Amino acid sequence: MPGKAPRRPRRWLRASRVQVLNLAARYAESAAWLYEDAGEVEQAGRWTDRASMWAYEIGDDEMIAWTMFRGSQQAMGRLLAGDVLGLAASALRQSGHLPAPMRAAIVQQQAQGHALDGEERACHRLLDEAHELASPVNDDGDARSGHGSFCTPAYVEVQRARCWLELRKPQRAVATFEHALPALPSVYRRDRGMALAGLASAYAGQGDPEQAVTTATEALNIARAAGSVRIINVLTSVERSLAAHRRLPTVAAFRLALAEAVAC
């Protein structure tokens, strides 16, 4: 009679589970980002929660901080200033152990929460801090620095422009977007598309519908190529802001192109 297979030691099982959950948390966080870009916000939140739960179980402080940051980003999309600030603050409780690019990403997220709350001084103080933290970051798109590697000085300045929009100062947003956009790595197509959509919104806000449409059309081309519903959602807001100019041929053409993209 063959003997029974030897039992695996509990320590071996524990080590294997840690490895599996470490990988699962990273895949879950990636899935959350993909759902968010596809416009499926609830699913994005569910996968972020799973990543956070698995990271907590294995004591991965960096991933716990990152999932708090991701939750803060998702709260920004729902315009929940309290949640944006609370989740970012929770992420920063690990700040002594986090790489500088990751801290920069979280600090600029706090700044966005303050912009949503109308707190201009606190917002720009934090953006200045994030810019300084990001100054050594030189990312060409391979994410070699891990979480937050995308948070270059140019990225921080794009977020500053978005904050100017939240603070209802479109002229300052235009100037900041125009300065920061050329420095964004070309590999980050979705970031560029989002920045262009923000710039289009700023042009519309300062009463320049022709420039808004030109920029929005460039963003729409990126959204179509990348399959990004997130960019299209911003452009839908731009289209609504141009309602008073709907008789302009360029605006009418953009509205038609956007409607076709939404229908796809």
From TrEMBL:
InterPro entries, per database record: TPR-like_helical_dom_sf (IPR011990)
Protein's recorded name: Tetratricopeptide repeat protein
Taxonomic lineage of the native organism: Bacteria, Bacillati, Actinomycetota, Actinomycetes, Streptosporangiales
